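Q: How would the structure tokens look for this protein?
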Amino acid sequence: MPEEQERFHNAVAAMLNSVMFENWLRFYFLREDEVSEGKYVLSIAIPEKALDRIRERFFEFYPMAEELNGIYAEMPRACVASVGLMRRVPFTQSIGCACTGEVRGKNWDALYQLCEQRLKAAQTAGGDQICSK
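A: Here is the predicted structure in token form.
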């Protein structure tokens, strides 16, 4: 496999592992809290014992688990990620990625703008690719 193709393959595999891990966190630890009468927010509430096990067994994903623990309630927008893994329907996809470490503080708008810029760059470059820089 050519080096560029292998790097792309590895990046996609790492991204899919992260998406699957986040979905696993949501499946087991998603919580709905009532903030006022009839108004609810979702958050991820990972017990300390579970965080310890994640740190031991899935150390590469521990920072994600730690950051997502309780964070949904702070998000100003609904964020939903879904992957059609069960259907196995071939499709093309362009993705713009950014990390919270690339913006100051928990500035969600700046993070979304960075993702949108990178998505546009991926689409402008011909689509069907991931842009993370």
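The first strand starts at residue 30 and ends at 36.

Residues 87 and 111 are 30 Å apart (CA to CA).

Upvote if useful.
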